[in-house]
Amino acid sequence: MPWYNGDYPPSYKNQPKKIRDKAVEIANEVLKTTGNEGEAIATGLKQARLHFAKEKAAKIKD
After folding, report:
1. b/e per residue 14-42 (b: at least 16 CB within 10 A)
2. How many helices (H) and strands (E) does the chain have?
3. Which residue ranges of the chain lie beneath pLDDT 50?
4. pTM: predicted TM-score of the whole model, two decimal places
5. Cβ-based neighbours of 41, under 8 Å, separated by 6 or more
C-alpha cells in the first residue's frame, strides 16, 4: 500500500518531517518495483538518512 498525505509507516513516526517525507517518497518507489512493504520501509528510511547526511556534508565542504 503506497503512503501519502501524512500517512506513513509507524517506524517513521519519530523522524524529523524532512526525513520522513523523503523516506516516504523513496519507499513508494521501492514498493512499486519490489512490491515488498518491509523492504520499502527499511530502504526508504536508510536512503533518506543517507541523502540528508550527504547534503549536510556537502554544505560543510563549501
Report:
1. ebeeebbebbbebbeebbeeeeeeeebbb
2. 2, 0
3. none
4. 0.88
5. 9, 11, 12, 27
